[in-house]
Amino acid sequence: MGAIIDIDHLSKDYGSGTKALDDVTLSIDEGEIIALLGPNGAGKTTLISIICGLVTPTGGTVRVGGHDIRTDWRAARRLIGLVPQEIALEPFEKVINCVRFTRGLYGMPADDAYIERILRSLSLWDKRDAATRELSGGMKRRVLIAKALSHQPKVLFLDEPTAGVDVALRREMWQVVGDLRREGVTIILTTHYLEEAEEMADRIGVIAKGRLLLVKPTAQLMGEFGKKTLSIELDAPLAAIPDDLAGRALSLSPDGRRLAFDYDTRAERTGIARLLGDLAARGITVRDVSTRQSSLEDVFLSLVSEDAA
Question: Is the confidence at residue 71, as pLDDT, over 80?
């Protein structure tokens, strides 16, 4: 599939001197899920707001489905659904009417069968006649997703969609997102739940200080920046790492009972067998070993700290 969103040298400067976005270029393919990660104030929400027509860029262009967001904004906006961070709903309106009304705002004809399908997929059908003020925070966020999907958009932006949602509901919403992708909807996700990005995203982009540091397939990012750590539990504590082993990326726990060995899984030889053999030759008895894979959180923090430096 081709690109549905093309962002070319996009920037946003505010009068105060703040540079919210700095020369961002990105192409997003139809039907993919891309996660944008970054600390607070990195520019994620600004980027989404520009694409959705809520903020005017200082420079650069954005095209959605071939439509320029400034010169052909109606056609571009019709392709987009947005789930914002803030929960803003009419407190006394019924859930089903909120979704129907949003569909009407886009000039779409009434389609109660489609509205029912959305509400059922989000576990909201039983709440269709409830006033939104009666719902929990997680259910209100689901209503926001239903509203964003009401006009059958091709692109869905989820800005921190699971903030304040419990683990069970979060998992259910991940399932909804997966179903949408299978239907061909392109999804752009911002999140602070790094396991969410690792679980769902085809590609991950890292933003810091308004700059897009990188965009890579999730598996490739983990392969390039991730590492594994071998944890070696010793039968008896060590006072220090033997001098002839000190150059092997080894670290010793404060109590001397555990060695940590970082290694690259892509290397032809990991060095694990040699290390264990050398320990045995020195009379150092190993009680147990385990491995830990670097998480996306480790990768993210590494990238952001490198940029700060």
Answer: yes
The predicted structure's pLDDT at residue 125: 95
Of 221, 230, 228, 229, give the one whose Cα is nearest residue 303.
221
Output the six-digit token pair for 86: 């803030």
- R_g of the chain computed on alpha carbons: 24
Kindly list the distances between the CA atom of residue 206 and the CA atoms of 38, 42, 299, in Å, as whole numbers in the listed order: 6, 9, 10
Determine the pLDDT at residue 274.
87
Domains and CATH numbers, the chain: 3-223 (3.40.50.300), 227-293 (3.30.70)
Tokens of 90: 């009419």
Q: Write the pLDDT tens digit of every residue in 152-184.
A: 999 999 988 776 666 777 777 778 788 888 888
CA gap 72, 132 in Å, rounded: 34
Give dist(CA 221, CA 299) in Å, integer: 8
CB 211 within 8 A of CB 274: no
Q: Residue 82 corresponds to which tokens in the numbers above?
A: 């947005």
What is this structure's pTM? 0.77
What is the reported pLDDT for 307?
62
Residue 128: the pLDDT is 95
Q: Which DSSP letter does residue 131 get?
A: B
- β-partners of residue 24 are 10
Q: Give the per-residue pLDDT at 265.
A: 66
Q: Which long-range contacts (CB under 8 A, 24 or more apart) does 86-89 make?
A: 87/137, 87/140, 87/141, 87/144, 89/132, 89/140, 89/143, 89/144
